[in-house]
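Researcher: Let's run the pair from yesterday's discussion. Sequence first, then tokens, for each.
Model: Starting with the first of the pair.
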Amino acid sequence: MDADVVIVGGGLAGLVAATELTAAGRRVALVEQENAGNLGGQAFWSFGGLFLVDSPEQRRWGIRDSAELAWQDWRGSAQWDRLDDEDRWAAAWGEAYVAFAAGEKRAWLQQHGVRFTPLVGWAERGNGRAGGHGNSVPRFHLPWGTGTGVSGPFAAKARAAAAAGLLDLRFRHRVDGLVVEGGAVVGVRGAVLAPDEAPRGVASNRDVVGDFELRAQAVVLASGGIGADHDLVRAMWPERLGRPPRRMLTGVPAHVDGRGIGIAEASGARVVNKDRMWHYTEGVANWDPIWAGHGIRILPGPSSMWFDALGRRLPAPGLPGHDTLGTLRLLRTDPDIAAFDHSWFVASQKVVEKEFALSGSEQNPDLTNHDWPLLLRSRLGRGPTPAVAAFERHGPDFVVADRLGDLVAGMNRIAPEAPLELAAIERQIRERDAELANPFTKDAQLQSIHNARRARSDRFTRVATPHRLLDPAAGPLVAVKLHVITRKTLGGVQTDLDGRAIGADGAPLPGLWAAGEAAGFGGGGAHGYNALEGTFLGGCLFTGRVVGRSLAAAL
């Protein structure tokens, strides 16, 4: 035996599993195809939001939450409909995760060095049904350090375990297959890749300079999802979401290629819910990209008007920040716009300054660098955050103009394939603006804005005071061309509640465990058809923790 456990993947799920195992004195080998600078994986690049229930931060804002309400929201969002088969373990993992988020998750993270800002956001505000998709209350907790503040403590623990001789870090080792003997997984094999000092996130070479094989009592697959492989995303794209876009932006580095899931399936593991995925509709091209096709997601408040490629205002649930996949379905299943890959936000500068945030640790230096003065200036002061201001100046998808006619002309310059009519855009904006004469309205989006303003956390930090978009005092006007941006795999290797991979016969496959996105964040689909946000990093944390503790006890 080369180790007690081999972990495939140096992202957050793999690091958490390694932390639990080495803390219990187990010897671990962790293999990662990228260089040491990429330890922490996708989590490093994320905004870092975490789903917590009935937290001190919520209570300080006057937000009343409970495990019962959170489970109602999760179940209504998941809409599991394969409970006798593919969703058997997925639903159990979903329920266990909600209990974790309402219980020891926050204290456990604090024990590992994760610290939280006072901010609580309201992501996925819902599709308008009490029992349907969406969060009933704000639950999106922001840690200091954004994604780096979550992955960093576990990366530090991995380096400390390596220094103590308990963790063997094998970078530039690409797993190409599992070693299976007598029906049990007993190790991994693969290629040693040539050294490459490419900066974190930048695509590295795939030059093979050798091979390797490692044997252990158990293998943990924590290799991530398929988001960087657009061909695979299109191959898995479900009919219910219409036609996949011809062009998409990429929300993850190139090494997020889904190879590990296919390798597990080829070795006898059951991969389920392949048709479930999570891609955003508010992507913009990064004017300063790190990887090819690098997209950044706008994290919107509720006030921007959303138009399709033909300039028609989207109906509910196609409202900013409300229903990610519901909006994707609207944009991809309408035959009139199926030929186009974009949609539009139209907002005032007042909305942009209050409501536009950008995903990514590098786009939020105030939170990432624990910079209180910068946070106060950029989040509560005048003007947009520096990152948003940079996109307004340099982003190829942004148009800024004082007059609506000039704005629409600019929109047509960057999307000539679908020219917009000024009169139609103006009519829809004026109809919306007319509804602001009273504090009550029949407009579903304005109803949501008024509702959001009743939440103190939103009113103070996230939602602009209702105003007419065409009011010159709120200007200039801003339009943003939006693209689909690939992100998460919601299906994966089916696992039981200990994290053991399930084989084709429905029984655990001896020797193989799975965690994180490769396991569909637990059970092969803990989110079901939808996600409530703040649950992806949380799913890596939870599944890595469960797998590490279960293996430590079993070995």
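Model: Moving on to the second of the pair.
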Amino acid sequence: MTQIIWIVAAVFITFSVGYVGYSKYLSQFVDLDDERDTPAHKYEDGQEYVPSKKPVLLGHHFSSIAGGAPIVGPITAGAIWGWAPALAWIAIGNPLMGAVHDFVSLSGSMRHEGKSIGYIIGEYVGERGKNLLLWFAFLTIILVVAVFALVVGIVLNAFPSAATASFVYIALAVAFGVYLYQLDAPFIPGTIVFVAGVFGGVWFGINNPVALFPAIEAGTYPEGTIILLGFLGDGAWLPGAVMESSAILTPNVAGWIPVILIYAAVASALPVWTLLQPRDYLSSFLLYAGVGGALVAIIVGTVFSTSAEPLVVDSSIAAFEGFLGVESRAPFPLFPMLFVTIACGTISGFHSLVSSGTTAKQLNQESDARLIGYGGMLGEGLLASVALSTLAVAGFASDAAGGGIGGALPNFASGGGVILTSLGIPAAYGAPFMALVLVSFLLTSTDTAARLGRYMMEEIIGTPGSGTDTGLSGDFTSFARGRYTNPIIQCGIGYVLVISGEWATLWTLFGGANQLLAALALLTATVWLANWDDSKQLVSTGIPMALMVSITVLGLSWVAFKEQLYDQLIMGGASGLGAQISASVRIVLALVLIYLALSLVKIGYENISTVRGGGGQPAAEPSDD
């Protein structure tokens, strides 16, 4: 049987070559120079533009980009098509496409005052192109907020100990922010003390699990779980709640979702030093321990194991299940759906919003972009390989063979617990720890997404990066972009989407929109490079852009015409008027995303053709201000 170590070995080899060789070339290609002042220094305001130490910013960036998608995507893809296609796309696509995407998005934003990719493309193709991209990004952000809030609720329901530990580390993060930025206390001693506190919170959570509402079936929660809102009944009255143990939106999950959305709204409105930076830095140690510990455990469990079959791929997981996937699922073609399903484990448009949103405003020096941009995406690829390994070890339950959120999340925690036993950690502790790792990723991504959505709206309305308008007074535009009010809009829409019960469709639309946004970010980088200098090659960004446009347009077309129009409307899969309206809305949304993307590609292509075809001069040099 195949040993798990070959999954991580393949990724290590391609990632090492990519970072040592390709990222060094790209750093020279975009002319990283530490003699230039970064936007964080030029526009330092203590609110959004804050120069940050490299390890602190790496922790924030990695925590923000590594949400639930690089875990759910590879596990779902592995269950449908087998582990080999998923591994190949992660190992090859990540260093050649995903890491390039993140790096050029960060570098381009750094040269344009820390502004978003929408602002950058607007500099070269005009206001219409900018607004098209920003609206596309804003719609994607709402899907991100909705999906991640749902996934956090599912994990906290499955592992109540992770809820307690999350409360502890958020409180520690606020204290660490005060310690670091207000008291100006020593960095390293503080790191040691507060990181120890985070891991102490894991132990505390395992011994004091909490839930909001009682479990539908006895024995679902660990013994001694504290029910916080039990005095309000069983939670059946919550919007979207389903009183079935097999349902996704059980009362406890439905109760956690608004809590997470309120947290995201509040956290996104606070200055970055208050919670975002210190929390992401502290949680990064938890994340590094989870990903790094799993990788070490795989090596130890293979090289030093006395078992005849140490950490091997479970017999329920095949290397390749065929082009149309497992029989238990309706035909699901490997091309293009594999690439849309894995999404963030290889390339993610959401990362371009993080890179050109919060991260570019905090870079201390230009050379930091190589480790944080290119290296951060490789770190997410390692997370994807760990997720695939947890699936391979734990196997997939027969009732979850079709993949999806409900099947993927338990596998990551339970499979991770099995892997960590190679280090002598009992599965009873390892599984809740891996659940907390997942929650840590998701919480940081959720409130970072809400903050980025506010940035998008500020640029659409015309006050980019102000961060001073609270939105509590003034006209509707003030409310739409306000620091306190804009997150309410995003989280409110996200809540309505989640409680509709269409979580599976949300995930598919999120994957397609996210990948298409990555193509548009690569288009933005290609336009920037074309306008910068005639000698700049456009292959590194142009080829990945063309591939992602083709893949994601086909993927969203499959969702719109096959899964919704044919299966739901024509063949009668959508029973009832409400389901038919829902399917129609999903078709319209998919087609709108395709239209916005193709319109932008046309505008960008015309600009590049004009500049490189001799019809005009480069529009701008790389900005230093």
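Researcher: Give me one sentence on the second I can quote.
Model: The longest strand covers residues 210-211.
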